[in-house]
Design brief:
This protein is α/β, with parallel strands linked by helices. Helices cover 41% and strands 14% of the residues. It starts with a helix and ends with a helix. The relative contact order is 0.15.
Length: 517
């Protein structure tokens, strides 16, 4: 070899010769390294025209990452309504599955962790220091079960706050006729004072515009103190009140009883439409608020500034509006819809799998993550600069299954490393991190809490069925003067169905979790 190299390159020193040999050896080692393929299942827009081309581009980028040159990925996106079944059938057939997005992957993902379907990641965490540094501790806590880290959460906004939206034309008729006056009641008033403000506003408008049929939307949970839904992901079910850590069945507590009373009185007074049970709310709200027959306010939620929403809604509705947050803080709840990425117990290369997840969740993997989200430059998007793109098939923040390629950034990785397309504001990411998750944040005490309803599943199902049965009659006020008898009937059925047993069981779990923190 020395003579051959000398003949090719002239006389070289022994030191140079050894360097060349080592270089050739490293090249040979890379060439001879085991080829590893990881299969990644996730929900989104399903297989699209260019999914395979995007897959090839990601593998090309992976081959340039030190330590992952021999690793490739196989993308397996499914439509959300098909995802759980496809994943289950694949795993039951013992076909390769290595990385799984937990969003919609299982009816009860906690059970899958405890059964050993996925591995704890604690011993692998040392391999992903960049992700650990970039994801806040409270985000990482969402991926823990029984004190072990079972998935790396994808990082997106959390903490939407409710809003009251009214036409600017109607501003003189609410509170003292100023945004500050509305805000003072919403931020400092009692629940009854907040509801009365909206009802008095409706009355004042009806007097000022007698030619119109002006109504209030039925009051629901918009003015409730901060709470955590723990059984249904919404207001139906059971919640934990953030100020007391008390488990509450939503339709039988004193706070919501006040809502039922106010709605019934408003219905009898004619402030709620007589045909509220059959009308289509969207036809009377938002852009229709100034119509001759309409609701005079709307509820919303989000994390943008009031001014940003006012501009957005004015452009959408065709008339100026006033937007006021109902709370001075953004409540970051215990429930986290985005889920994260987990590694299966059948994965033969968990170290490579965690390193791929690291690329999706840290800045160093931004190009791979954004390729997975947006697709191919010149095909699905045009690059404007290092952080801005123009998507070519959609002008909203997220593409659909109808596109040649697009994916959901919030269930794949760290959305704060995502490029911004034409629908994303430059300031929003900074606002979410520094304000919504920072200076104006209020964090749930229950982040990391794992609910177990196995001993009360029957009773809980009965509670949920009762809520569905009585919901319209109570929330929409249509029982009028008979509302309290209807409410008492509900409470009696709730007790007979084992409602208190459900409350007591869940309260014990909440208390134990908080005591252990």
């Amino acid at each position: 070899v020395y003579r051959y190299l000398a003949g090719c390159f002239g006389l070289i020193s022994c030191r140079h010769y050894l360097a060349v040999l080592l270089s050739l050896g490293s090249f040979a080692a890379a060439e001879d390294a085991e080829k590893i393929n990881l299969v990644y299942y996730y929900a989104g827009n399903g297989m699209q025209r260019d999914t395979q081309l995007v897959n090839e581009k990601i593998n090309e980028l992976l081959s340039q990452i030190p330590g992952l040159e021999n690793v490739s990925i196989t993308l397996m996106p499914s439509l959300p309504n098909e995802y759980q079944q496809k994943l289950m059938l694949t795993m039951t057939a013992e076909e390769p599955v290595d990385i799984v997005s937990t969003y919609r992957s299982s009816a009860n993902i906690t059970d899958e962790f405890r059964k050993g379907t996925y591995i704890p990641l604690d011993d692998l965490m040392a391999l992903i220091p960049d992700t650990i540094a970039e994801l806040p501790e409270w985000v990482m806590d969402y991926g823990k079960v029984d004190g072990k880290q079972y998935y790396i959460p994808t990082y997106q906004q959390n903490g939407n706050v409710m809003q009251v939206i009214i036409p600017e034309e109607y501003l003189p008729y609410i509170a003292d006729g100023t945004k500050e006056g509305i805000r003072k009641v919403l931020w400092e008033g009692t629940m009854e004072e907040k509801i009365d403000m909206m009802l008095n506003y409706t009355r004042a408008l009806r007097e000022a515009y007698p030619e119109k049929e002006i109504y209030t939307e039925p009051i629901s949970s918009i003015f409730m103190p901060d709470y955590d839904p723990i059984t249904s992901g919404g207001y139906r079910g059971l919640v934990v009140m953030s100020d007391t850590n008390q488990v509450v069945e939503c339709y039988s507590n004193d706070m919501i009883k006040l809502v039922f009373q106010k709605n019934a009185e408003a219905y009898d007074e004619g402030l709620i439409p007589e045909d509220i049970l059959t009308l289509k709310v969207s036809d009377y709200s938002n852009a229709n608020m100034l119509n001759d027959r309409a609701f005079c306010w709307a509820g919303g939620q989000g994390v943008e500034t009031e001014e940003a929403y006012e501009k957005m809604f004015a452009e959408s509705y065709g008339f100026p509006v006033v937007v006021v947050r109902v709370s001075p803080t953004y409540y970051v709840k215990y429930f986290y819809a985005a889920g994260g990425n987990a590694i299966t117990s059948t994965c033969e290369h968990p170290e490579e799998a965690i390193k791929f997840i690291d690329l999706l969740c840290s800045k160093k993997g931004a190009e791979i993550y954004n390729t997975l989200v947006y697709g191919l430059e010149g095909v699905q998007y045009e690059k404007i600069d290092e952080t801005h793109i123009k998507t070519l098939e959609y002008d909203v923040t997220q593409g659909s299954a109808a596109n040649t390629y697009s994916a959901w950034k919030w269930n794949l990785g760290n959305t704060f490393n995502a490029w911004l397309n034409q629908a994303c504001s430059d300031e929003l990411n900074d606002r979410i991190v520094n304000v919504v998750h920072g200076s104006e944040a209020r964090f749930s005490n229950l982040i990391g809490f794992i609910l177990d309803t196995s001993t009360v599943d029957v009773e809980l199902a009965q509670v949920m069925a009762l809520q569905k049965e009585y919901e319209d009659g109570l929330f929409k006020g249509v029982m009028g003067a008979d509302w309290e008898a209807y409410f008492n009937e509900y409470c009696a059925k709730l007790e007979a169905a084992g409602g208190q047993k459900v409350i007591d069981t869940l309260q014990a779990q909440v208390d134990a979790f908080l005591a252990a923190k």
